[in-house]
């Protein structure tokens, strides 16, 4: 009886890691991972439009002619 108990204990101790690493884990992403990635994509997509508008305004300002130097409200009448 002692030898069979020892053999059973040795067998369970040796096969514990093999049973733990059975490969039965899921490889699919969970709902929260998908939600997090979709949220990140939405943040990037919604920041893209204002960024492109700002970039277009910057390019327009760099490559356009300078405006007149007159100040608004100044009619040119100096006393």
Give an overview in words.
The protein has 79 residues and is mostly helical. 66% of the residues lie in helices and 0% in strands. The mean pLDDT is 80.
Helix content: 55-70%
Average of per-residue pLDDT values? 80
- Number of E-state strands: 0
Distance, first to last CA: 121 Å
Q: Which series of helices and strands comes N to C?
A: HH
What fraction strand?
A: under 5%
Outline type: rod-shaped
How many distinct helices? 2
The parts where pLDDT drops under 50 for at least 5 residues are none
Largest sheet: none
The SS-based structural class is mainly alpha
Task: Report the radius of gyration as a whole number of Å.
Answer: 36 Å
Which secondary structure elements does this structure contain, and how are they paired or packed?
Layout: H1 2-20, H2 31-63
Supply database-style keywords:
single chain, 79 residues, mainly alpha, 2 helices
